[in-house]
Amino acid sequence: MQERAVLTRQAVILGAAKSFEKFGYSASLTTILQHAGVTKGAMYFHFSSKEELAHAVIDAQHGMAMEGAQLVAAHSDSAIETLVFVSQEMARQLVTEPIARGGMRLTMEIGSIQGPIEKTYLDWIDSIRQVAEQAASDGDIVQGTDIDALARFIVGSFTGVQILSEMLTGRADLYERLSQLWALVLPTIVDKNRLAHVLQLAALPPRKWEPLTA
User: Fold this and answer.
1) Above 80 in pLDDT, residue 126?
2) Minimal CA–CA distance to 134: which of 199, 93, 99, 86?
3) Which of 12, 115, 171, 183 is most enclosed, with most CB atoms within 10 A?
């Protein structure tokens, strides 16, 4: 029963994410139930309101992003590579994962109605800051670079790029736009001895990272 309850909760969150992605926070409970393939009673067993469900989708998207960042770091050979690969993983999630798209739309919509949802962005900025600090310690980032400003700039730039890509092409060109972003930014922050290698990585399309085997 416990396993079944977990699967039902996951189905509700996924169905809600698909509905919120398409209709925003105004998505009806009927639409959410249709996408989830569960009964109203099953949904209310896990979530007391649409607002609680919406925040669960945001939390699921945030968890997916943070797990992706950790997985990328485990595969990367250096922090400067991680910096690029994390942004590519975020782009991949937005293109391929309904929870990522639904959670991102909700973060923007609910934030504009109820006030900013700060935790997701602050965690993201802090994660990028830690990676950038390690890259600077490794000597891969130009000396004197303001790491705090860099972390906020990367997060803000990615956010803007993905929104513009969604508005113009439904994110069909997101990978290309992200590569262009890095082609403009990397020459200003990466040590010249590492620049060609990192630019080459930034030009690659994102890939799905598999968990490391024990």
Assistant:
1) yes
2) 86
3) 12
